[in-house]
Amino acid sequence: MRDIFNFLNKTDSAEMILLASNENPLGMPESARRAAAAALEGAGNYPDSNGTALKNALAARLDVSPEWLTLGSGSSEILELAAQVSLKPGENVVYSQYGFIVYAQATAHAHARATVVPSQDFGHDLDAMRAAIADDTKLVFVANPNNPTGTFIDAAPLLAFLQSVPAHVTVLLDEAYTEYLSPKQRYDSIEWVRRLPNLIVARTFSKAFGLAGMRIGYGVSQPSLTSRMNAQRPRFNVTTPAQAAAVAALGDTEFLARTYELNTAGRDQLAAGFDDLGLAYVPSSGNFLMVQVGDAEAVHARLLAAGIEVSLLGPYGLPQWLRVSIGLPEQNKAVLAALR
């Protein structure tokens, strides 16, 4: 314990512990690093605007045609594209309270208006969201797991909700954290896309695949939606090194397995530590935990002074809560020691 506090007190020279943005604490996989470095040889030329190699790799993995895929600068761009192709100014968007902050931004960028449905136990109230869909609703955002709360919707109620949404309403199912789900939680949302022409599934390489700085994500939807999103997508929105790194990371099953195991153990480590400290938290299915600390701004400042960065949730209307990304075991230990 003495070593931990000595480390925390050396904030001038010690490297910051960055647990604010839900990044993979293992960093970029070596396979992706090598692929990106090799791709730099061709960086004097424009990227493949269609992302052919990556789309082919994703198509093989997901068992869909490349024509069902849209590449984005992170999955955030897929959310923005969904808003652009679904909405006209003044039309309605539905999403849950405590939904990812980009949903509000994408709505504003489309000059649309939002109906924010009160949460249920910090998660989605699907019945209330369905009731909020009106004639002028054209887009619904659903995150599973949700960021920043970590809540998860089981497959059966989620599919029932998706099937109940009128055909004129596009649904964006945000699965940025899907790789962290336990085996019993997993479901085949790509099969749902085959059945539902108004569904877009958005995923990212920023989290489990360790490519946050590369800015690359993708959307899966039927060609009627995909063609419209690709028509709006900036032509060279994903760089050559990012495409190469994503292909390599997609095939690096060993790295993904290590990531999952590390995250599961780290989530248990933090949860046990919060229990020991008597701090309330929301059980999470992602790579972070939302913990109630009282005066979150004051605690956040104390953690920063100790060399630890976590995320404030005031912009979400959660001023007593912090979101702590799951780190390496020693990083998790340091956060708990600082909180104590």
Summarize the structure.
The protein has helices at residues 2-9, 30-39, 52-62, 75-86, 101-109, 126-132, 155-164, 189-195, 223-232, 240-251, 253-277, 296-305, 329-339, and strands at 17-18, 69-72, 92-96, 113-117, 137-143, 170-174, 199-204, 217-220, 281-282, 288-292, 308-309, 311-312, 321-325. It is of the alpha/beta class and 340 residues long. Mean pLDDT is 95; it is low at 1-13.
Task: Name the features.
340 residues, alpha/beta, seven-stranded mixed beta sheet, four-stranded antiparallel beta sheet
Q: Explain this structure to me?
A:
With 340 residues, the chain is an alpha/beta fold. The protein contains 13 helices and 13 strands. It has helices at residues 2-9, 30-39, 52-62, 75-86, 101-109, 126-132, 155-164, 189-195, 223-232, 240-251, 253-277, 296-305, 329-339, and strands spanning 17-18, 69-72, 92-96, 113-117, 137-143, 170-174, 199-204, 217-220, 281-282, 288-292, 308-309, 311-312, 321-325. It has a seven-stranded mixed β-sheet with strand order 2-8-7-6-5-3-4, with helices on both faces. It has a four-stranded antiparallel β-sheet with strand order 9-10-13-12, with helices on one face. A two-stranded parallel ribbon has the order 1-11. Strand 3 (92-96), helix 5 and strand 4 form a beta-alpha-beta unit. Helix 4 packs parallel to helix 5 (101-109), helix 4 packs across helix 9 and helix 11 (253-277) packs parallel to helix 13 (329-339). The radius of gyration is 20 Å and the shape is globular.
Describe the SSE topology.
Layout: H1 2-9, E1 17-18, H2 30-39, H3 52-62, E2 69-72, H4 75-86, E3 92-96, H5 101-109, E4 113-117, H6 126-132, E5 137-143, H7 155-164, E6 170-174, H8 189-195, E7 199-204, E8 217-220, H9 223-232, H10 240-251, H11 253-277, E9 281-282, E10 288-292, H12 296-305, E11 308-309, E12 311-312, E13 321-325, H13 329-339
Parallel strand pairs: 1-11, 3-4, 3-5, 5-6, 6-7
Antiparallel strand pairs: 2-8, 7-8, 9-10, 10-13, 12-13
